[in-house]
Amino acid sequence: MSVDPRTTVLDRLWSPFEGQSGSRRSLLLMSPLILFELLVFVVPFLLLVRISFSEQSQGLPYAEGTFTIASYVQVLQSELLQGIIAYSFKLGIIATLLTVVLAVFYAYATWRASGVQKSALLFSVVLPLLTTLVIKTYVWVPLLAPNGTANSLLLAVSLVQAPLQMVPNTFGVVIGQVYIVFPYAMLAIYSVLTTVEWELVEAARDLGASRTRSFFAVVLPEIMPGITVATVISFAWSVGAYSAPALLGAGSDRPFALEVQEQMLVNFNWPIATALSTVMLVLMFVSILVIYAVLGRFGGDVANAT
Q1: What is the per-residue pLDDT across 173-187, written as a single tens digit (0 to 9) for each?
Q2: From CA 192, how far away is CA 188, in angstroms rounded?
């Protein structure tokens, strides 16, 4: 009698989990992921925090074995770094608002479409994800440049008398950042929209609700968990934006990611770079908690999403 070798191998792999309780079995199954998170995220973050409490050194990135809070004091007192933090959050708020609004209507249009039209709308969102971040950001330079495509069209239809300066400045940074995070926000909202029953919208319209009112009264509350996820993704990514400000921004368009790069690679001042990163991480964590709290009051509780 022959024994299927594949069955034997599977049985051997599963044997350590047999006889274990449900919670212990789940912990064993998750242990590789937990180990990965610890090695790749937790340990490097702890090293970053430790470096932020080190003294600055002239010839080295930081003075090993020292302890001081001078870097945090400098980050919190420096007007330059305070301006960089403020600009980072301003960019995050503007880009997030534009992204989420556009993502909601695009996801709704995709949800209501069918056949080839729906496939085309979904493909147009997924396609940018297949392109490297630098390339799909840099493509906006020839489009928004003073002699680029956008200005040529505006001049051709006589909407402007002279080319507009759209890059390098904050306008170009916002456009590029919205383009980067839009697919993720749209897919987060669309995934929740697919669980909404269209019969609810039809019932609201049968009771006299207009298209606009049925959307805000029926659809919008149902997709708030997706909007919450989209908001968090867009805000976190936009506050920490690097490629869009680096390629489309001017010298004054300086978020904290570019400042961290300069402090680490140019000034060789790792304590300041890590202290700034830690401060931004704490502020981001608090901001995300506020986002969850505010949107959760309008039905954006992700944990209760269906």
Answers
A1: 999 999 999 999 999
A2: 7
